[in-house]
Recover the amino acids of this structure.
């Protein structure tokens, strides 16, 4: 390959302005260190992991390549910064800590507005099997893909192989739910050399500071630090878009008497009828109403709407 020819690759790691880019070369993947062109900074673009980029030789032996171009992103999440995320592994524990379903439902809504496929993983089902089954049923019925994981029946690589495909998947959810445990198990860190392994995992456990893409079959997975809250308003969600996070309500809402029915108190609302008949989960419906009401009350502040 000529020295000056641009190479296409993916950023898998970025620390202190030095990016690791993976590219395909003569039948296998290679990882190289890259700097970013100053032009990105001028345009206010910061390369992020997941970015598909072009790189060229830099002539600098310390950082031998330079990123010359960043492809348009299909999605972007800011905290932590990850570009082109296609799957969110929304991880919540059945107990210890108790699952924050308001946070889960907000994340489901945000995923849908950003065209990121959500997959729910309920961990620690060993600690309360009944609650695990109940949560699994609520979200499966709502139309989501749900997986249960516990030390008794751990999630395996093959459970996620087809789900992730050649996409980029990130573990997201509160801290302490078992994201790092799952991620490390899927990456089979336990199969690596012992001394190095424990040091590596220990460090990861305490910080998960530098979010990094790890190869997973044809795609990537990454662990993220936990977070405890998410503001729909900050995410620019419009009250009219709340239904995108509630596919089970959307499905039946077409039968309501009023086209602009908010499904909160209107007459002739089939959603409220379905609720009375136990066809919709009460908790999910209450959270739908609270998101709608909160965003409706702040409706002059939103920034954008989903493009139809
Ligand atoms: N009982 C039980 N404990 C788990 C399970 N998954 C993780 N843990 C424990 O939960 C704690 C937090 O796990 P960690 O992976 O660090 O959570 P993170 O903050 O989401 O990355 C650790 O002590 C794990 O051993 C599980 O399925 N069942
Ligand atoms: Mg962690
Ligand atoms: Zn209605």
């Amino acid at each position: 390959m000529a020295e000056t020819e641009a190479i296409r690759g993916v950023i898998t790691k970025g620390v202190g302005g030095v990016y690791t880019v993976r590219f395909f070369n003569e039948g296998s993947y290679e990882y190289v260190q890259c700097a970013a062109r100053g032009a990105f900074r001028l345009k206010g673009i910061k390369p992020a992991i997941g970015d598909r980029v072009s790189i060229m030789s830099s002539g600098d032996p310390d950082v031998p390549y330079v990123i010359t171009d960043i492809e348009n992103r299909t999605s972007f999440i800011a905290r932590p910064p990850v570009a082109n995320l296609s799957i969110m592994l929304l991880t919540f524990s059945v107990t210890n800590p108790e699952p924050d379903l308001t946070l889960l439902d907000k994340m489901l809504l945000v995923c849908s507005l950003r065209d990121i496929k959500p997959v729910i993983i309920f961990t620690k089902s060993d600690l309360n099997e009944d609650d695990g089954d109940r949560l699994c049923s609520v979200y499966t019925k709502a139309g989501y893909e749900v997986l249960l994981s516990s030390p008794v029946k751990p999630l395996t690589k093959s459970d996620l192989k087809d789900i992730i495909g050649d996409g980029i998947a990130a573990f997201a959810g509160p801290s302490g739910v078992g994201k790092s445990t799952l991620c490390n198990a899927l990456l089979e860190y336990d199969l690596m050399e012992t001394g190095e392994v424990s040091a590596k995992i220990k460090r990861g456990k305490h910080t998960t500071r530098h979010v990094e893409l790890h190869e997973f079959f044809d795609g990537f997975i990454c662990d993220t630090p936990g977070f405890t809250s998410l503001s729909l308003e900050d995410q620019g969600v419009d009250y009219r878009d709340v239904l995108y996070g509630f596919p089970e309500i959307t499905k039946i809402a077409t039968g309501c008497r009023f086209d602009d029915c908010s499904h909160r108190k209107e007459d002739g609302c089939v959603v409220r009828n379905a609720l009375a008949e136990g066809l919709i989960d009460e908790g999910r419906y209450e959270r739908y109403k609270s998101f709608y009401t909160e965003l409706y009350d702040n409706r002059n502040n939103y920034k954008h709407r989903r493009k139809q």
